[in-house]
Amino acid sequence: MKSTALTRKEFIRNSALALAGATFIPGMLFAENQHNAVHQALLSGYQGKKSYTLKNVLLETGFEYDGDGNVTATKTGLFSIQIANGKIKNISTNSNSVDAIDAKGLLMLPSFKDMHIHLDKTYYGDKWQAVRRGPGGVKGMIALEQKILPELLKNSTHKAEKLIELLQSKGTAFARSHVNIEPTSKLDSLHHLQLALENKKNGFGAELVAFPQHGVFYTDSVPYLKEAAKTNIDFIGGVDPFSIDGAIEKTMDFTVQLALDNNKGIDIHLHESGESGLKTVEYLINKVNENPVLKGKTYLSHCFVLGRLEKAKQQEMAEKLGAAQIGIVSTIPFGGLIMPIPMLMENNVKVMTGNDSIVDHWNTFGTGSVLQKANLAAQVYGQATEYALSRMLKLATAGPTPLDDKGNMQWPKVGDSADIAFLDASCSAEAISRISPVKSLIYQGNLVF
């Protein structure tokens, strides 16, 4: 008789998946950013300054090793950081200057990036509404969205601004936002979000994806996508070409060509986990290899099919994605599906994460924290050592970590953009493991809070 007992790793993994939503406190959803009033008053004089110095800044300086070469701890030290014109101008031994901002020993990390979110259509900042499920699956949800979009658009700029403030409070100063482009809202969602981003430009940056949520051809989104592609958006998006539009090749060919014609990247939502999902991935890999200009600027969001493949096929696809420089943006967790994120990383696939929906008609469990996403990934994949935890930070930052894999300091460097989060933690590993609180945020040298 086969044992049904769970291993410790399986128990932790399943618990993380089950509790991802349960750890969220609904009562906190619409709370304003909780900043310390006294601290804010002290720092207000520095906001808007082009040049200033931070002292008592905790930076990671290396790893400590045992006799077998295993990382046992992270070395740190206190430094002074000079910021000027949005850049890090100097890094020096710690100073006691009375003119410097006292970071009080807080850990300095690269500010976080939410690389998959929908800032343009949210309930956040408005009255609470739970998800409404109707018949017809995704197409049924499209019909619902067509019905509610006109009302959502009435105050979408305000709600986007409130959502940006939530992200900032979690240490995020940059996002990749998908923006609805379809016959119902036309380009209104885009214009409303652009206004919100303009209002928040001193504390937040973004890149935008023209997203045909209602299909490219299922609803006639083609003319609106072509119009959006001529604006300053960054990516051409897409969603499940087979199940929504009924044809992989036709939809993917249009998407790729539109990106090529307008010098844009590509970011496709792919939820399909069967044969059509695999065919879509393979077709996109071939198109990118045929058009090398798309390498490094093409992404698959979700891409759940990778979690359904046998291990040998997963390895093959990871190698092909890595060679084509196609990234995966994974919205951790994934219900009962375990994505091969470590395997993807090992094969040089750029893996990033995001909150997707914070609270909207698709989902209500987003917290706004990509640090929490990195924590969940660490639990799911058993990344519990000092070294392994520190490596998971790249999910929250979309790449940068203070130390490289050999423990050499690689961030911050003089000349880096001053995009900084300060956390109440002793090192990256603790920040990931404890989801340490964010105490301050700087974006391009601007003191956000």
Per-chain topology:
Blueprint: H1 8-19, H2 37-43, E1 51-65, E2 71-84, E3 87-93, E4 101-102, E5 107-110, E6 112-117, H3 137-153, H4 156-169, E7 172-180, H5 188-199, E8 205-211, H6 222-229, E9 235-239, H7 241-245, H8 248-262, E10 265-270, H9 275-290, E11 298-302, H10 311-324, E12 326-330, H11 341-346, E13 351-353, H12 370-380, H13 386-391, H14 393-397, E14 420-423, H15 428-434, E15 438-443, E16 446-447
Parallel strand pairs: 1-4, 6-7, 7-8, 8-9, 9-10, 10-11, 11-12, 12-13
Antiparallel strand pairs: 1-2, 2-3, 5-14, 14-15, 15-16
CATH superfamily of the largest domain: Metal-dependent hydrolases
Structural class: alpha/beta
CATH architect. name of the largest domain = Alpha-Beta Barrel
Specify the number of helices.
15
pLDDT averaged over residues: 91
Low-confidence stretches: 1-39
Indicate the CATH class of the largest domain: Alpha Beta
- For the report, how would you describe the main beta sheet? 8 strands, parallel
Radius of gyration: 22 Å
User: What proportion strand?
Assistant: 15-25%
Spatially, the strands of the biggest sheet line up as: 6-7-8-9-10-11-12-13
The gross shape turns out to be: globular
Keywords: Hydrolase
Protein name: Amidohydrolase family protein
GO molecular function, one term: hydrolase activity, acting on carbon-nitrogen (but not peptide) bonds, in cyclic amidines
Domain Amidohydrolase: 225-449
